[in-house]
Design brief:
The structure is a homodimer. By secondary structure, chain A is mainly α. Helices cover 63% and strands 10% of the residues of chain A. At the A-B interface, helix 3, helix 4 and helix 7 of A face helix 3, helix 4 and helix 7 of B. The first copy, chain A, binds a DNA duplex through residues 1-2, 5, 14, 38-39, 54-56, 59, 66-72, 87, 90-95.
Chain lengths: 136, 136
DNA sequence: CTGTATCCGACGTGATACTG
DNA sequence: CAGTATCACGTCGGATACAG
């Protein structure tokens, strides 16, 4: 995710939450969901749960991510205080990424969601197939 | 979300999961996260937890959603078997949307995530502000 | 009331090339 | 190794108009 868009006021406006201040919890939900819902953040978080990783190490483990997107994803996570970025000024350079306590605490509810997805995948796929064939 | 994109193979390809079949759980996580992460689905699910709602009722409660996006969101949720759509062939027409058991079960981990977001919002906002001012 | 159809701008993403 | 810069493309989402 582009860090610039995370706090973009328009993201809140379109949610209709600015004119409904009593739903401040919805704003919080939306921002975290924006992070969790983006294409790569969760994958990175899950990989970092097992310990500190280097840039290319993450890139290799994910497999399908571009250099650009991994950089953007890690910057976004760093900005939100979910991962720390440690640079070793060596040649060649080495950068370690590690989950913060906040990041580790996020991993818990995310794992719960992931387990739900895994458990209910058959139902969802069946529902999709049924829906799609019904509207051939 | 556009229902046509939910099962778009490219969504899986770019995740690098097609060439890593041993990470089948990651595929499941990704698809549910795509749904949870989209702009409106979670909001709709949360509103439907309290009971059956009509189209314009949802539209009014959300406030900032366009007719088009509410339709697309509801279609996506229906396709995944998370909500049911009941049409009353009256004049004027009336359509009720209700959470399925599957949808209600999804609400649980989503709520957990929402509570995490609410609880940690101060930390995240502080981290963002710190990050942004640091890189003025 | 509950949609569908169309247009259009904005953003996310990937590919590629380049840098320290 | 770990990025940054640039471009090109596709999709998402809003606005508007129209329909049953």
């Amino acid at each position: 995710m582009n860090p610039r868009t995370s706090t973009n006021p328009s993201n809140l406006n379109v949610l209709g939450l600015t004119e409904a201040p009593e739903h401040s919890d919805c704003r919080a939900v939306s921002t975290v969901l924006a992070r969790v819902g983006d294409k790569w953040s969760v994958l990175v978080i899950m990989l970092l749960v097992d310990g500190t990783k280097r840039f290319n190490e993450l890139k290799r483990m994910i497999g399908g991510i571009s250099q650009r997107m991994l950089t953007l994803t890690l910057r976004g996570l760093e900005r939100d205080g979910l991962v720390t970025r440690t640079v070793f000024p060596t040649i060649p350079p080495r950068v370690d990424y590690e989950l913060t306590d906040l990041g580790r605490s996020l991993a818990e509810p995310v794992k719960a969601l992931g387990m739900w997805a895994f458990d209910n995948m058959p139902d969802i796929q069946a529902a999709r197939q049924h829906f799609d064939t019904k509207n051939d």
